[in-house]
Amino acid sequence: MKTGVAHLPLHEGRCPPWLFTRMKDLSSVISEILIYEYGQEEFLKRLSDPFFFQAFGCVLGFDFHSSGLTTTVTGALKEALNEADLGIKAAGGKGKTSRKAPEEIVQLGDALGVANAEKLVHASRMSAKVDSTAIQDSYQLYHHAFVFTEKGSWAVIQQGMNASTKYARRYHWLSSNVKAFIDEPHTAICCDKRERNVLDMTSVVSDEARKISVDIVQETGNIMRLISGGQQSLDAFTGTSVKTLVMDARHTFHLSKPTMAALAKAHELQPANYEELLALRGIGPKAIRALALISHLVYGAEPSWDDPVKFSYAVGGKDGVPYEINKRHYDNTIGLLRSAIENAKVGDKEKLHAMKSLSKFTQ
Fold first, then answer.
1. What is the dihedral of CA 274, 280, 284, 287, to 10 degrees?
2. How do residues 177-201 score in pLDDT, each as one tens digit?
3. What distance in Å separates the CA atoms of residue 360 and residue 354, rounded to the nearest whole number?
4. Cα separation, 139 vs 160, whole angstroms
5. 63, 69 Cβ separation under 8 angstroms
6. In sequence order, what DSSP letters do the residues of 277-337 get, joined into one string?
7. What is the H or E stretch that residue 130 is in?
8. How far is residue 80's CA from residue 147's CA, in Å, rounded to a whole number?
9. What is the pLDDT of residues 234-287, one digit of tens each?
10. In angstroms, rounded to a whole number, what is the distance separating the alpha carbons of residues 90 and 81?
11. What does DSSP assign to residue 194?
């Protein structure tokens, strides 16, 4: 199962209460069936797949292509999982709620009996730091949902918004796919649009630039000498002869005082590797970009500038696309699924088997 990114346009409006209540109930029974049939790990695996998640939102009846699908579906799913006894909980959400994820993880982790909740908190923070800083694609993160199991496995669904285009980009993570937070955590990308000049410090192409970025921070005095102003030309900066120079307007070394202070602090702390450097407070997009450019211009280690970015209705859609939601049909669907899972618990799996057969027929 691949993880990746999806592009979604911004839609106005809110999810009506009658629909959100039903989305919560339907997501609850679907989650329970998936976990009952396939287990917790498979449930996380499916959430980490942008295509499954998109189809999941469509089945729940929300806008099939809007940015609101992410926030509303994860909101309904969070309430459903946290109220159920499935060994899986969800933290975070949209806006200010996303910043509560660490404390929610600790509280919910204690209730689940998770052995090391701080490890989950680190995963939550690093996934957000990577997609806001290590990958610079012009999408500002505003939504972060962290789903985890009693055994410590986790999945992340977060979203960023491009203010100029009014498009959102969704990022999916899965713990079993993450060898290192800065080593291509998004193993495959799904998207209908690629951005130009995206700095991707998680790419394998950026490996040397990552190493040199750490070296620059570690070396005494080197960082201020390289970043401080006074370079009159690229020749003076690199000490080499250059015939042609074409630079993007955003490639600048004029850093703010807070960024310079953060880099100086990083030198004091001497991070052992790039992940430790990225995790430091104050090390944001400008510092990471400056180090990447210096690694390229001074030492020839070019980072990746390639954008890493690479469905089904059951009950209708909120905006009447492809047809209006039938509330009675929606409630009957919830009732059927709830009945199937309750019967299966006492040994009667006839309804679940029937749905499996129907699935094979429709395919």
1. -60
2. 898 999 987 654 544 567 778 999 9
3. 10
4. 5
5. yes
6. HHHSTT--HHHHHHHHHHHHHHH--PPB-S-------SS--TT-SSS---HHHHHHHHHHH
7. none
8. 12
9. 343 343 444 444 444 444 445 678 888 888 889 999 999 999 999 999 999 999
10. 7
11. -
Q: What angle do CA 117, 119, 158 make, to 5 degrees?
A: 95
Residue 270, exposed/middle/buried by CB under 10 A (0-12, 13-18, 19+)? exposed
Task: Give the whole-angstrom CA distance, residue 197 versus residue 302.
Answer: 13
Question: Cα separation of 218 and 269, whole Å?
Answer: 9
For residue 250, count CB atoms less than 10 angstroms from its CB and return exposed for 0-12, middle for 13-18, buried for 19 or more: exposed
> Which region holds residue 160: left if phi is over 0, alpha if psi is between -120 and 50, else beta?
beta
pLDDT of residue 232: 38
**Tokens standing for residue 53:** 């998640």
Take residue 320 and report the two structure tokens written for it.
């009447």
Q: How many residues does the chain have?
A: 363
- φ, ψ at 238 (rounded to 5°): -100, -20
Tens of pLDDT along 198-218?
A: 999 999 999 999 999 999 998
Cα end-to-end distance, the chain, whole Å: 19
- The secondary element (H helix, E strand) that includes residue 193 is none
Which residue in the block uniquely carries the two structure tokens 């509330």?
Answer: 327
Dihedral (CA of 245, 248, 250, 251) sign: negative
Distance, CA of 12 to CA of 67 (rounded, Å): 10
